[in-house]
Design brief:
By secondary structure, the protein is of the alpha/beta class. 26% of the residues lie in helices and 17% in strands. It is globular and about 45 Å long. One of its GO terms (molecular function) is thioredoxin peroxidase activity.
């Protein structure tokens, strides 16, 4: 099974208001963000660019492992690898628009390191394995018994300007074109 191709019949996620509390103007918990382990072992750099993009995703799969049962039927679950590749492929343009980019999941840094290396990601993946951001921000999530009921963050993206939430994308579909959606938003909302 090719993890880069998305099936034609994926269910489209609907806005269930689970991100309604993440309003523009809300302070982002930068202290938690800076503590999160990263795939480069460096701390998060939220000040070198005026904007930081964090795309949250449920989990990436490993090439030789099958997807969890029912994964394609969970709205918004499938597509973490294509989404990451989109941010990788548009990384330079995102930086030219003044934005740092990070991916974040509840997987361990060791697990994330494999995908960062395999996909040649030019940005860090952040591990929220201790669920600090998930709990503090009350991020939407789901669990699967097959994956030991570890909370998996629903797909969403937060744009932070300095230390404040500027915009939230939720739900996201299709994930393989989401980076272009973020680029369009950045172009329509240039820094002042």
């Amino acid at each position: 099974m090719n993890r880069f191709d998305l099936p034609d019949n994926l269910p489209v996620p609907v806005d269930d208001d689970q991100c309604a509390h993440l309003k523009a103007g809300t302070k982002f918990p930068v202290d938690i963000l800076i503590r999160l382990p990263t795939t480069s072992k460096n701390s998060v750099d939220i000040v070198s660019q005026p904007r930081t993009i964090i795309y949250f995703y449920p989990r990436t799969g490993e090439p030789d492992q099958k997807l969890p049962d029912g994964w394609n039927e969970i709205p918004g679950a499938r597509g973490c690898t294509p989404e990451s590749c989109g941010f990788r492929d548009h990384y330079q343009e995102l930086q030219s628009l003044g934005a740092n980019v990070y991916g974040c999941s509840t997987q361990t840094t060791e697990y994330q390191q494999e995908v960062a290396d395999r996909l040649h990601l030019p940005f860090d993946l952040l591990s929220d394995a201790k669920l600090e951001l998930l709990n503090h921000l009350k991020l939407p999530h789901f669990t699967l018994p097959e994956l030991d009921n570890i909370p998996l963050i629903a797909r969403l993206t937060i744009i932070i300007k300095y230390d404040t939430i500027e915009h939230v994308f939720y739900p996201i579909f299709p994930p393989d074109r989401h980076s272009q959606e973020v680029i369009e938003w950045l172009k329509q909302n240039p820094l002042k």
